[in-house]
Specification:
mainly beta, nine-stranded mixed sheet, 2 helices
């Protein structure tokens, strides 16, 4: 964390390397901003090749409005993103996204703990995919979590 604090407080020689890992439970894509592939070590110790992509990441803003979504746009010229999203939707799989930030002078671990998001939605066209992801998908949850039904509570049935 010392390197990250120095990076934020001064204009040293370090550069940020933002990365995302997108998975549907079957396939995982490791992507980084830029056009150079990077061999980076995950927090688990595993070394993974992050593919350089035309990628733009917008981190969630800190605030009290309850909306903290990560947005990213990625090139879809080769159609790989469109196929990935279509296959996940057809299979009914949830897509998870992990954001990691590295500094170029320390590629042995992320500069800070990774942020994990659930993909909420987006638009996929023939040239670009725009995706939004949030910390917790409140819209996909029921309230109350404990459902009161007539099987558990037969007294709810109207006679």
């Amino acid at each position: 964390m010392n390197l990250l604090n120095r990076f934020y407080s001064s204009s040293g020689p370090e550069e940020q390397i933002p990365t995302i890992a997108v998975t549907d439970g079957i396939t995982t894509h490791y992507l980084t901003v830029g056009f150079e592939d990077q061999l980076l070590r995950l927090e688990t110790g595993e070394v993974v090749e992050f593919i350089g992509y035309a990628l733009d990441i917008s981190l969630p803003e800190k605030g009290s409005d309850g909306v903290q979504d990560l947005m990213f746009a990625i090139c879809n010229i080769d159609g790989a993103i469109g196929r990935f999203v279509r296959d996940a939707q057809e299979g009914g799989r949830e897509i998870l996204l992990t954001y990691r930030l590295y500094l170029n002078n320390d590629l042995n671990a992320p500069a800070k703990p990774p942020l994990e998001f659930n993909v909420k939605g987006g638009q996929v066209t023939s040239v670009e995919a725009q995706v939004s992801a949030g910390y917790y998908n409140v819209l996909a949850t029921a309230w109350s979590r404990f459902l009161f039904d007539t099987y558990r509570f037969p007294g709810l049935r109207y006679f």
